Amino acid sequence: MADPLEALRQPATPIAPDAAFSARLKSRLAAALGRTPPGASMSDTTTHTRAGIVADVAASAPTPGYVQPGYRTLTPYICVHDGRAALDWYTEVLGATVRGEVIVMADGRVGHAELAFGEVTLMLAEEFPEMGLVSPRSQEGHSSSLSLYVPDVDATYAHALDRGATGERPPEDYFYGARTGWFQDPFGHRWSVQTPLAADAAVPPRPDDIGPPAADAGPQAVGELGYFPLTTPDVDRAAAFYGALFGWAAADATPTQDGRHHYRHVGNTTLPFGFVDNPDSPSPEHYYRVDDLKAMVARVRDLGGKVISVAKYESGGNAVCKDDQGTVFQLWQPAPGY
Fold it and tell me: Measured between alpha carbons, how far is 162 from 219 in angstroms, rounded to an integer?
């Protein structure tokens, strides 16, 4: 008896497989078998065994019961303009391992991928501007940094620059016990890579480091002001003006961590602080205690500043002033017993 559906049959015609589906299927099979497909690369969206990584991470330290096994309570998630290139770069240069399945969207964009850096996971995705998700390459600057411990900070820093990173601060020994360097990767993200110093390799704080309170500062209570930046248009002019007015000793100017501004640390005061030329972070108006208000008012004028008003209150004498760059500050001579 003839098959009544024979008339509907069509000849078998080979078609090209969907590349994204093929990559996902290959990755899932490799993960299930605990191996990496022969000859595959990160650009083919391959992965390493997820089970082994999860076991290693879960065994390294306890995590709260509400956290999925293999993860930490907080996981950074970054956006890159080229997902496959980013996976290649982070695995080659920073020693990361791709974990789990790399999810590729229908249009070819990497929708989600995870990288294991030791016991920590970094998630990433490509740009989805229709969802408001863009990488640092599509906007000016960066709003965050990633810090990574590596076996040899000098080798990692040099390798990163050789593979297209932009150096910000070469590796240097720091007083907090690590040799650290900063660079911006080819995808616009800022990294600090560091290697701990030997226990006996103590490094004294540099003038631009935030140091401990002076010896005569007394006990430090929780919640008291411990450090502050003093915003000014020109840190050199400010150091000269206030150095002559109050005797503040400012260290040489150094670039801020983002490289966009200048900073001069003042360390000969009980409360340490520093001048910075960042107009996006204005300082509050400061009151400075003085012993002789009349003499200090005259000194402000001699140095090119302006005295706006002088008054006397129950709390003592007060003078509202401007320095030679127009920054407002006040001088205060406390009343006896106040």
Answer: 49
Selecting from 1.20.1740.10, 3.30.1900.10, 3.40.50.1820, 2.10.109.10, what CATH number does the domain 17-138 have? 3.30.1900.10
Please give the model's pTM, rounded to 2 decimal places.
0.43
What does the pLDDT look like over 207-236, one tens digit per residue? 444 444 444 445 555 677 777 889 999 999
The two tokens of residue 119 are 């016991």
The DSSP H or E segment spanning 28 is helix 19-33
Q: Per the structure block, which two tokens stand in for 32? A: 């299930």
Give which of 111, 82, 91 is closest to 24, Cα–Cα: 111
pLDDT beneath 70: ranges in the chain: 1-2, 7, 12-63, 66-69, 141-143, 175-176, 199-222
CATH topology of domain 145-203: 2,3-Dihydroxybiphenyl 1,2-Dioxygenase; domain 1 (3.10.180)
